[in-house]
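=== Structure Prediction Worksheet ===
Name of assembly: unnamed complex
Input type: mixed (protein and possibly other molecules)
Chain count: four
Listed entries:
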Amino acid sequence: MTIKIVDSVFDPFLEIQDFQTQLALNGKFGATSIFIGTMRDFNEGDEVHAMTLEHYEGMTQKQLEKIITTAKDKWTILEALIVHRIGDILPSEPIVLIAIWSVHRADAFEACRYIMEELKSNAPFWKRETLSSHQTRWVLKNTGSK
Amino acid sequence: MTIKIVDSVFDPFLEIQDFQTQLALNGKFGATSIFIGTMRDFNEGDEVHAMTLEHYEGMTQKQLEKIITTAKDKWTILEALIVHRIGDILPSEPIVLIAIWSVHRADAFEACRYIMEELKSNAPFWKRETLSSHQTRWVLKNTGSK
Amino acid sequence: MITITLHYFASLREQIGRSQETLTLADSITVLDVWQYVHQTPLPDNTLIAVNMEYVERMHYICDGDEVAFFPPVTGG
Amino acid sequence: MITITLHYFASLREQIGRSQETLTLADSITVLDVWQYVHQTPLPDNTLIAVNMEYVERMHYICDGDEVAFFPPVTGG
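=== Predicted Assembly ===
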């Protein structure tokens, strides 16, 4: 399992491929479930020009490890990768990547979804949006399971 | 929406990237849910050396289109890509790729899972495995939601 | 006269020893009767049937020009 | 004597005007009382509290050396 917090733009597909080539799992996994969260240029009816992602260094890693550990208790997963952006982000840049490898598909699908929902609820990240007016605002809360 | 049936090895990440660059969706999608099914080198307790995937040309495309259309009625999805291998396949080669783009995560997650389950139940593909003994056997049925 | 084509896939194709054939009948019958008429054996329990590439029930009646397919449970993905 | 560090994040950090401070107390009190003692205002309703990077309830008692963090609902992912 790997958790990466990165402060510049990342390529989710390169991250997955790099991670996958390091794994000694060739022929062992049948399922990979991947989620990518990408910055949109609109939110709650407003155009968004940029975003800054703050986090609680240390607690972020601790909470994400805890989430993966719980997922491993609930499902049979072979490997897990989480990459999350911090710092200044522009529309169409990836914010979060979750990738889960398992033997059977239900485990990968369900663990990926669970980790994403738990990350949204518990990982200490905060988004501040810059609107087209150059006004900034904190995102007040994450949507529940949306 | 794009459905591709391919008879030689494909790179799922290149397929996603190629498809994504053609989309005029920059800044419009917030969520991408991806599933990749990969050939394992073991099944039901036996080593598997190779696999042949047969399909019903024409009906495959028709059923997959129908599945995507139903998913579009159920969830708000922006784009969908399905790639499925046919022909001779070796362990660790990808068999199926499903990628769904949406504004919010629930739609992408749920549509991706739905399409995969429907594909497993209804798309006319059949797997014949070659075991280490060089004996071949047809896979009798897909696991339910597994 | 009703002329249909029959298609077989996967293990069923191998058991039957051919992948397709043409059949001409005087009247419309059900796809189940088509199987019994051609093969003189009961249709294997888990066999799926498609007409013109859409799934149908065993009691579906054929039309002239139909493409009727019989195959075992699908195992893709 | 109990010495703890306080951390604030995101909008709460901006409202308070600082990201961290140190506090020394004679006795252990709850994290809610820590907030009221320092800020003299009720803790905003939806504020989350962590001690040593683990979520705690408002009635959690502090220990010497604790890192206590107050922050608004998280919005990552």
